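The material for today's practical consists of a large collection of protein records. A record pairs a protein's sequence with a compact description of its fold. Instead of coordinates, the fold is spelled out as a row of discrete tokens. We will come back to this pairing of sequence and fold again and again. Here is such a record, shown just as it appears in the course material.
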Amino acid sequence: MSNQAPAIATLGELKKSGYVSKSIKEELRSNLIYNLKNGIQTFTGIHGYEDTVIPEIERAILSKHNINLLGLRGQAKTRIARMMVHLLDEWIPVVEGSEVNDDPLAPLSRFAKDKVAEHKDKTPITWVHRNARFAEKLATPDVTVADLIGDVDPIKASNLKLTYADERVIHFGMIPRSNRCIFVINELPDLQARIQVALFNILQEGDIQIRGFNLRFPLDIQFVFTANPEDYTNRGSIVTPLKDRIGSQIMTHYPEDIATARKITEQEAKLDQRQKESVYVPSLAMDLIEQIGFEARQSEFVDVKSGISARISITAYENLMSAAELRALKSGQDKTKLRLSDFIGIVPALTGKVELVYEGEQEGSRFVAEHLIGQAVKSTFELFLPKVEKLEKKDARGPYQDIVEWFIAQDEFHLSEQDDDATFEAKLNSIEPLDKLLKRYQINAPKEDMYFVKELVLWGLAESKKLSKATVGDDTSYNDPYGDYLKNM
């Protein structure tokens, strides 16, 4: 295939070239078969769907079905629809001047039929690239039948001196103008029921009805709908006869493991090159970012039915890098390592992306965001280090006993955002039992990540109630959990 349009300019030349018209569903099917036979991936950059969603989409395309992608927000539904464009032929011919992409060999509209009848083999044609064969409409309550299908245009009737009995007075809507294209309707349940009813004939019989005109107009369209299952109860529903006319309904889902979620975040995050060069990110920090999303999907404070978008991790990662960069700039450093305390900077990225249940509303969005970070720290801590036991045998020394005793012997231990890297690392190095613990349990951890791991131990012990943790401004302090109480006594 060439990036340059074919030189064929008339209907006669097109016939001589041996061009054979195909429906859009035949294009998708034949090009998918070619890709499968030659090991070419169609849906690249879509992670976690290799064995679930993508095979179902491929089966739907091979079956020439219209598709409904059903899933919670942030599950790549629209991206999948847009990637189907790559399965179209690179160029298709249309009758020059046609509003509905008329095929020169099988014209639909009155305009194209009259033009072919008048000019015959000299009918001028143009070529449309596949990138221009995608149309998308977000379903909102104000969408009308005229927007999607069309209406009578009195100005056109006046200018052309036509009566309203002449079909040339019709102004076509988005769907007829998307003939021979992929047409996507996002959030289908939000479309009013009477508008959904107007799609029945288009999907099944192929004809359209506009203001009394019953046109036999077999549109050639690949429909892709997207819907959120929560919409069925919250805002609207897909009317049953319309669902019956959609060939395949495919359920999407969130990443099922941390590794897949990381691939998505690293691929989608928009980082400045300076950030990439100036901030070192431990691998464990990326796992922790993803763990926050997993915690949110099972939190008692969060309405999990509304979904926890993959965008929560993407924006959190972007905020996290900016928090480390800002800290380095304030302390006059050109480069820095990401700290666990930088995670407080991602709170604004979390608060706007989770729907709270009543209990969460009572606690407040900031509390819930900080709680999710804390739970993610605890889960990650327990994954890489021994779990803190609530009850220990008498006279037995747990793996963290030396660290707790070190804090009992101290007045207070502070980590400040204003500390440069050297000061920050020196403070953590002063906790000698930390080094002993990590030499025993994290001997293979990269040297560059050790200070992040040390901070993870302290925060993890605080979440497990072995230490107390308090954050005031840009200062974080760790203490023996009973120290303040004993001092007051």
